[in-house]
Amino acid sequence: MTQDKFVNRVAVYPGTFDPITNGHVDIIKRGIRIFDEIIVLIACNPDKAALFTVEERMEMIRETLSEIKGVRVDAHAGLLVDYLKSSGASIILRGMRALSDFEYEFQMALMNRRQTREVETVFLMSGFKWFYTSSKIIKEVVSLGGSVKALVPDNVHQKLLEKFNINPRSNTNNRK
């Protein structure tokens, strides 16, 4: 493998980020030590019913990551490899939590390589604290009145409470 292929080490970290969690933030903070730039890419998937609009997610992510240099946020509907080609990136960054993630991520990595040989996928294991955290379970817990305060950035926690019309003072489960 030649070095010039990855001179500009731009990684795309795709996901729905509905919403972004502290697990996502952990992957981004660790990834930026490896890559020159990370594009947090909101994948617009019409098959998934999102709680937050793309614009709301972009705003939350930008606010959450505002102090991390080398990170930008974008959105894309369509094939990920097409976005990589148009952005000049050649690396896909993915976080993995468990064996069940591995099977899905492995299939996606192979499909992306089949689409174009110019793309590499790099996997980072989730930090131990975030191993069980997912956007789906975060939304479910909040919708049922539970607290996810320590699992998402503060601005995201506030937006979740607003989205589910929960008064933070009446939410007795505001644990850390």
Write a structural description.
This protein is 37% helix and 18% strand. The protein has helices at residues 22-31, 54-64, 80-87, 99-115, 135-143, 154-163, and strands at residues 10-15, 37-43, 71-76, 91-96, 120-125. A five-stranded parallel sheet has the order 3-2-1-4-5, with helices on both faces.
Sheet-strand content, in percent, reads: 15-25%
At the first level of CATH, what is the class? Alpha Beta
Contiguous helical run count = 6
Tell me the series of helices and strands, N- to C-terminal: EHEHEHEHEHH
User: What general form does the structure show?
Assistant: globular
How many structural units, i.e. domains? 1
Structural class, by secondary structure, is alpha/beta
Supply the CATH superfamily name.
HUPs
Return residue spans where pLDDT drops below 50 for at least 5 consecutive residues: none
Summarize the main sheet: 5 strands, parallel
CATH topology: Rossmann fold
The averaged pLDDT comes out at: 90
For the secondary structure, the number of strands is 5
Entry keywords:
176 residues, alpha/beta, Rossmann fold, five-stranded parallel β-sheet, 6 helices, globular
